[in-house]
Amino acid sequence: MIRVSKIRSNFEREPMASPFGFKGGYLSELWQSIVIMESSSGHTGLGLGTQSTLWSDAQVFLSNDEAAGNSLMYLMTAYALRKAQEAPFLNPIELLERLLPATYKYGQRITGNRNLRLTFALNSLVALDNAAWQLYCRENDICSFDEMVPEKLRPALSCRHTELAGIPLMSYGVPLKDIAEAMDDGYFFLKIKIGSDPEKDGDQEKMLQWDKERLTAIHAVARDREIPYTEDGHIPYYLDANGRYQDKDTLFRLLDHAAKIGALERIMIVEEPFPEDYRVDVSDIPARLAADESAHSDRDALERIEMGYGAIALKPIAKTMSMSLKIAKIAHDRNIPCFCADLTVNPILVDWNKNVAARLAPLPGMKIGVLETNGHQNYRHWGKMRSYHPCRNADWAQIDRGLFKLNDDFYARSGCFLDQSEHYLDLLK
Known about the structure:
The protein is an alpha/beta fold.
């Protein structure tokens, strides 16, 4: 039994290079939360998290100043950390199951939002959960990610990729010339934000027209490129709506347009098209729908699978490693593919995500694994943030021509998940 005897936490504000738009809103910064837990036996676990109030609960983001919304999430992290001192645990999954209900209720109280999304609480617990995993490994002399994963969950993570496609994010404001340049640089799996609110009036028709024009423009610069990493040899598209489409009919109209311009077969994933409370069967939609924010927990993921969703976006860096491992098992048991999406996290968390992405089966139509990472596009000080990574000079930590190349060193060191960053430790002194 692991008993937490000492705790510390802090956060660091990291500005965006420019306003970062999705869900009809814009971020100017992301807070990096930092947690350290020390056990009664003297071992320590250091955990990081990236807070995204806009992604995890847009209502909290829109009803508060940006810094106030971040402060609310950080208060939840600090609350849960105190509770962890009262909750001896055998493993981090058990700890999360004990802390999540109380943290969620605390979040409802301080945000004044009875309908707070569970993802908001999970996002607040990422740093604590990561610290718990590191502490668990040190307490139990575990030296690898493969050994860390509980035995019953390992079948979901049985692959061992040597290459991962790095997925950049093409948000609303990314110019076409930048998208073309990214493909020239070797990126070949495009995540395209849809669901823009061009006149900030919530009009679904204007949104749909904007999305049609955006997809047409991107397809025009990508359609003739050939790549060796997909079964059809074409650049795949990954559309992310963040719940902006209010009904199936509107999405059908977008996909009809995609078919007319020859882009439908290129759409590998449409992620989270509908609001979370829009519970309808989606098996008739002619594209693979992926659940993201709506798959808060393993129970929610199962509900989405039963509704006809054909993929799950795993986010160990947004919904905790513990919950993501449980979701991966649910999906694997039902032959539903998973992939790892980003939250615009810091470089160290990219490699936490990479540990999972490296072990997931490829998406249908792909010959290799995938990992979304867009921090290099969006943080103002990405190069400086990379200097905080204990393994910043490792080959597998770099992206080369759109690929992460995973060698024996990556698997031997498990992406440095047990190493502790001096920079973040210093912020806790």
